[in-house]
Amino acid sequence: MRALICHSAKDLRIETTQLPDMGPDQVRVNVAFGGICGSDLHYYQHGGFGTVRIKQPMALGHEISGVISALGANVKHLTVGQRIAISPSRPCGSCRFCQMGQQNHCLNMRFFGSAMPFPHIQGAFAEQLIIEAYQAHAIGKHLSLSEAALAEPLSVGLHAIQRAGGVLGKQVFVTGCGPIGSLLIGALRRAGAARIVAADIADLPLKCAKEMGADETINLKTQPELLDKYKADKGQFDAVFEASGSEPALRAGLDVIVPRGGKSLIERIMQEAKVPVIKHLDGICHVYIDNDACPEKAILIADNAKTHRYGTCNTMETLLLAHAIAPQVLPKLIEIYRTKGVELRVCPETRQLIERLPNHQSITLKDATEDDWHTEYLAPIISIRLVADIDTAMAHIATYGSKHTDAIVTEHHAKAMRFLREVDSASVMVNASTRFADGFEYGLGAEIGISNDKIHARGPVGLDGLTTYKWIVLGQGEIRE
């Protein structure tokens, strides 16, 4: 079997190597295509990167696809001849990070083509490989094996988008338009980014970025001034993705990003903080229209709670309606949302009701999934669910809500009081839009932030929520008896 072996900087050889024996949980693969990563280039050009150096001959490569040629005795979910993309990572499964489900931090990671441990982990630029069965990922018939070799660098971009907390409707800046940057741009476009600006120092990768979906490209070497307009008003981009590994590129990103922390920062603080933190992660706000609601009032509130502003944490994301009142309010609300361009994601009962309307063919509906009930859209999208009564509504809020703001629309006093008592959110409202959950509206002056917690500030946080107090006693010799 032949393999591409790097001995040192600029010393690359095609050599005959021995394929190891296949174990019962392993798979033998005929390698089809491989992508050349930046780390492969560093090994070839410099003999390593940072403090990592090649100390023994090592096969390069980790971005690969192939065809299964043999299966271990215990492998039942794969077949000979199956086309696969191959994950290059083999976590140990036993270190403390693996035991916590954080395999990406494995202390004993075996990654194809890595000189970090010694002996080195041999890479995948070879005619055949023995891999663990869990490294094999079947690909669809529509996907070529050359495209499948891009799965590993694409996954880097997908993970970055996930860490950013989603990009739907956001302005995004990407620095570095090599393979990972360009694949990231394609993923950002698919994920719903409203505008993507890409920057690099060479025209060829910028051309590729444009073809992958960038709305604008900037050559920072020849036209750096084109970035200046995005520095105005403390920055214009909601998210910056740095894919070049360049310190100047990172600094440029800091100049154009809006000043605030994102969801991923909050998640990290929640995971790592050793003291209680005043914070809120999501604003999954609900309006429940009870069967004792005033229809006119309900329509007004449900319209305002969703469409007054889409990108705020107190915007309603899920509308809950009691079955009995839905025929009176839903048709008018659907028309309002349709006119304003709000995408409707609905439960089966809501779909059935809407499809009985005379003009239902002009209404575009999407079926709500389990993920929709968990989602803060921050966009012109709403999920709608019909419920039996107030008990079902409160159960939904308890399951899917984020303890931010939830409202009931009802003329029934006892139900309203029960909703206020039992819904465990920072702001609970009766016959009012969730958009009122705001520090200024509550009379707190400037709003510093929002807290879904119960220590000590909750809901909109003003300046007093960031302070504590002390007791001062002035005496003239008094003692306690």
Write up this protein:
The protein is α/β, with parallel strands linked by helices. The protein has three domains: 2-149, Quinone Oxidoreductase, Chain A, domain 1; 154-256, NAD(P)-binding Rossmann-like Domain (Rossmann fold); 285-464, Aldehyde Dehydrogenase, Chain A, domain 2, CATH 3.40.309. The chain is 27% helix and 24% strand. The chain is built from 14 helices and 25 strands. It has a seven-stranded parallel sheet with strand order 20-19-21-18-17-22-23, sandwiched between helices. A five-stranded antiparallel sheet has the order 11-3-7-8-12. Helix 6 links the parallel strand 14 (195-200) and strand 15 (216-219). Helix 4 (151-163) packs across helix 5 (179-190), helix 5 packs parallel to helix 6 and helix 9 (295-307) packs parallel to helix 10 (326-339).
Lay out the secondary structure.
Blueprint: E1 2-8, E2 11-16, E3 26-35, H1 38-46, E4 48-49, E5 52-53, E6 58-59, E7 63-71, E8 83-86, E9 89-90, H2 96-99, E10 110-111, E11 128-132, E12 136-138, H3 145-148, H4 151-163, E13 171-175, H5 179-190, E14 195-200, H6 203-212, E15 216-219, E16 239-242, H7 247-256, H8 263-272, E17 285-289, H9 295-307, E18 316-322, H10 326-339, E19 343-346, H11 348-354, E20 365-367, H12 370-373, E21 381-387, H13 390-400, E22 405-409, H14 413-422, E23 427-430, E24 449-451, E25 459-461
Parallel strand pairs: 13-14, 13-16, 14-15, 17-18, 17-22, 18-21, 19-20, 19-21, 22-23
Antiparallel strand pairs: 1-2, 1-6, 3-7, 3-11, 4-5, 7-8, 8-12, 9-10, 24-25
